[in-house]
């Protein structure tokens, strides 16, 4: 971690909203939703109280990861327009408080998930926090353009954790839910990096756009989107798939692939002329992509429970 000099207002006292922002609530919403789907589509039922407690502690663990990331990345966040207003670089919360909160919530969430559900799920949650805070934030992010490829695993674990809460084990379905998020992460973030490259340049983060240029990044987006499509559609042929998911996955991945092809065909002159409209559109759709896929799994599970399919 490099030193960051931040000017703290001695008269400002951090409030609940400042500490809550450390937990990256928007990212946490995806963690909660995918973990919930992983739990609900599992073949083993879970008592509602156990299920609620488990999702709560998974959410807390996800928030702990966010706080640890903000503590470590304070120097990077301070020079990036997209992150400069976060609690630590803006001076609303001290780096020490962010670290303390992250460590406390990490221990609390893992222990409580083990007590509420099972220790296999708790161990997977602990590994997820470690992977995001240490493997991704402290190592990959600052050293390799593969940062977001390998690091994407951190965000892919929640549905697997939800599945393990219910079943106590990992199966093909859990692996494929993990794989969908894992393969989705690179094109999602690389699309953002195409029109936010200056941020990564300024912060010295070796994002693919910085190390290999936008032309290479565009090709990589297409390749990873093409690899993602069969994985996402293939999930529909497992025990948790169904007609809603399968039809939705085919349509969404066809649209996603169409967008990736359009990005790959563009050059910087075209992109700058329309202020990266295509890239921004692809990124916005990618935000919906996972929610729609996992929402479709939930719809099929509900229909299956009602005996409709």
Automatic annotation (TrEMBL):
GO biological process: heme O biosynthetic process
Localization annotation: Cell membrane
Pathway where it operates: Porphyrin-containing compound metabolism; heme O biosynthesis; heme O from protoheme: step 1/1
EC number, UniProt record: 2.5.1.141
Enzyme class: transferase
Bilayer-spanning residue ranges: 27-46, 52-72, 93-113, 119-140, 147-168, 174-195, 221-238, 244-264, 285-303
Primary localization class, coarse: membrane
Keyword annotations: Cell membrane, Heme biosynthesis, Membrane, Transferase, Transmembrane, Transmembrane helix
Catalytic activity: heme b + (2E,6E)-farnesyl diphosphate + H2O = Fe(II)-heme o + diphosphate
Single Gene Ontology MF annotation: protoheme IX farnesyltransferase activity
Cellular component terms (Gene Ontology): plasma membrane
Keyword Transmembrane attributed: yes
Entry membrane topology: Multi-pass membrane protein
Signal sequence bounds: none
Function: Converts heme B (protoheme IX) to heme O by substitution of the vinyl group on carbon 2 of heme B porphyrin ring with a hydroxyethyl farnesyl side group.
PANTHER family cross-referenced by the UniProt entry: 4-HYDROXYBENZOATE SOLANESYLTRANSFERASE, PROTOHEME IX FARNESYLTRANSFERASE, MITOCHONDRIAL
Quaternary structure, from the entry: Interacts with CtaA.
Miscellaneous information on this protein: Carbon 2 of the heme B porphyrin ring is defined according to the Fischer nomenclature.
Similarity-based family: Belongs to the UbiA prenyltransferase family. Protoheme IX farnesyltransferase subfamily.
Name of this protein: Protoheme IX farnesyltransferase
Annotated organism of origin: Tranquillimonas alkanivorans
Gene name of this polypeptide: ctaB
